Amino acid sequence: MSLPALGVLGGTFDPIHFGHLRLAQELADALGLGRVRFIPTGTPPHRDSPQVNGTHRLQMVRIAIAGNPLFDADDREIRRKGISYTYDTLTELHNEHADRPLCLLMGTDAFVALATWHRWQELFDLAHVVIAYRPGFRFEELEDALPAPLRKIYRQRRGGAPALLRASAGAILTREIPALDISATNIRALLAQGSSARYLVPDAVLEYIEKHNLYKESDAR
Predict the structure, then answer these.
(1) What mean pLDDT do residues 22-40 have?
(2) 15, 156, 215, 219: which has the highest count of C-beta atoms within 10 A?
């Protein structure tokens, strides 16, 4: 592989906040990623539909990452009809970027649920999986929480060295990131009651939210 790996960070981003941004920056720096692609989900398979529509969520991502040359916004899942599956997204990216590895970035909660994802075992044929964890996190607890098939793969594929990214796909890497305890659910609750979400969300994103009257109790999406 001649080019540095491409990080893939999916999520509802409802709204995007500093926790998302710091996770992406930390992992990009630690692993030497060439870019990080933020991909707002369209219709998620495992959770309720986002409160705000895809057009607004994509625009908030674009506003939040503006000025960072490492970050890109990708609208493919917003444009895709039907359920948004990570397998389909990684397949498309793998075909578009055959000259570089892909790194699927996620937190520990998402990894624990990975075995419920569509064609989850095939994700390792398409990308490396990078698990971000907070200081003090105990991996014994992570292993205990994994279903047996995923636990087996985790033990087989886990490593700590960014050098593993020289392969095209298949490794599981774990990296510690700062404990930014920021929740989009809590942000939405603050905004719905008219409280300030400053210092949780970039100011420019808050301005967009206010301009379009998003996350109010009367929000009609």
Answers:
(1) 96
(2) 15
